[in-house]
Specification:
single chain; 60s Ribosomal Protein L30, Chain: A; 320 residues; 27% strand; four-stranded mixed β-sheet; alpha+beta; 13 strands; seven-stranded mixed β-sheet; Phosphoribosyl-aminoimidazole Synthetase, Chain A, domain 2
Length: 320
């Protein structure tokens, strides 16, 4: 299949977003928005971010787009469009490529997203670069720099599940709730609806948990120049998480990442509103700490077994 036939095979024949003037078919797409525009881009490389041994082609596409949508959710944005640039090696066949895009389309359909462009080239290893575009109401984008002393710190869902799923996929032992953990790794759920239900709040700081809560909490603390206090025993994990060795539990829930849940801070007076939003979005939410005084440099402290220790900014780093 040549490049143009491939593009014809993946392009949409109808579009969902009314703000789209021109989609695939010209040198660029044309959008006429009425709200603030939020955009993000991520690149996913074979044997760095995914592997054929743990991912089917469908899951590669699904998970790659989910990671990008999670970035939009962390900004309080509703996803609308995506563009895909793909480097295709010889050992990925036409059926595999079709499944990658089918995985993306399956998730995009849930959020009424339109595929509006991209690029295809050949190369030595499969690489996906996805750009997403979303909308927020005017001045309602959520920033890491919005945390203030006295805020409650919360997290959605449960942490460590994705790394537990990867552990299961690369091992041979029998585990409880295997499918649950594997799906949490392969098909994460971006918290778009929950984040959008926070629009009425005047101030919320959000960060998606892609590199581990230790990393994301420090990013908020540093951007806001505050000290964040987290209680280790309050950090939520799934019911079967305790089947794994204790040292792995600790590592995964603090530093594992790729759960794509949301970590946030909110004025304590608005905590009940946040809980109502989580209930409406059918999303579990847990208060895990609070924000203390501002300072020259942000930091995160962890209360662990009656001791308070500095939670270092560790987790997955791409250039390590």
């Amino acid at each position: 299949m040549d490049e143009f036939s491939f593009i014809d095979s993946i392009k949409q024949h109808s579009y969902r977003q009314s703000s789209l003037i021109k989609g695939i078919g010209d040198d660029a797409a044309v959008i006429r928005p009425a709200m603030d525009v939020v955009t993000a881009v991520d690149t996913f490389v074979e044997d760095v971010h995914f592997s054929k041994t743990t991912m089917d082609a469908f899951h590669v596409g699904y998970r790659a787009l989910a990671a990008n949508i999670s970035d939009l959710a962390a900004m309080g944005a509703t996803p609308a469009f995506y563009l895909v640039s793909i480097v295709i090696p010889k050992d990925w066949g036409q059926d595999d490529l079709g499944q990658i895009f089918f995985g993306m389309k399956s998730l995009a359909k849930q959020y009424k997203m339109d595929l509006i462009g991209g690029d295809t080239v050949s190369g030595k290893e499969l690489s996906l670069s996805i750009t997403v575009i979303g909308y927020t109401l005017k001045d309602k984008a959520r920033y890491r720099s919005s945390a203030r002393p006295g805020d409650a710190v919360f997290v959605t869902g449960t942490l460590g599940d994705s790394q537990a799923g990867l552990h299961i996929l690369t091992g041979s032992d029998h585990y409880l709730e295997r499918d649950y953990f594997v799906n949490r790794h392969r098909m994460p759920t971006p918290r778009v609806e929950f984040a959008s239900l926070l629009n009425d709040l005047s101030r919320v700081a959000l960060n998606d948990i892609s590199d581990g809560i230790a990393s994301e909490a420090n990013e908020i603390a540093e951007s806001s120049y505050v000290t964040m206090i987290l209680d280790e025993k309050l950090i939520p994990t799934s019911s079967s998480f305790k089947q794994f060795p204790i040292e792995l539990q600790q590592k995964w829930k603090l530093y594992g990442g790729e759960d794509f849940e949301l970590l946030g801070t909110v004025p304590i007076k608005d905590w009940d509103k946040v809980k109502r939003a989580a209930k409406l979005a059918n999303t579990s939410i847990t208060k895990i700490g609070h924000v203390e005084k501002e300072g020259r440099a942000g930091s995160v402290l962890l209360i662990d077994n009656h001791k308070t220790v500095r939670l270092e900014k560790k987790g997955y780093t791409h250039l390590k």
